[in-house]
């Protein structure tokens, strides 16, 4: 006889994976934004120095 499914545990696992994926995307977005702002500041500094 098969075991009864544990829907609560399965849902928690899906939500945990979804939260991890969301956090990873947010971290990548933050890093990209930080990189682009520092890059634009560097470009602006080079333009004024010339």
Automatic annotation (TrEMBL):
Give the span(s) annotated as Disordered. Answer: 1-50
Q: List compositional bias (Basic and acidic residues) regions by residue number.
A: 9-27
Query: Would you say which domain of life the source belongs to?
Result: Bacteria
Q: What is the protein name given in its UniProt record?
A: DUF4169 domain-containing protein
Could you tell me which species this protein originates from? Mesorhizobium album
The organism's taxonomy opens as: Bacteria, Pseudomonadati, Pseudomonadota, Alphaproteobacteria, Hyphomicrobiales
């Amino acid at each position: 006889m098969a075991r009864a499914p544990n829907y609560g545990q399965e849902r928690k696992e899906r939500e945990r994976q979804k939260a991890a994926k969301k956090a990873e995307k947010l971290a990548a977005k933050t890093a990209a934004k930080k990189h682009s702002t520092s890059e634009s500041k560097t470009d602006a500094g080079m333009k004024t120095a010339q």
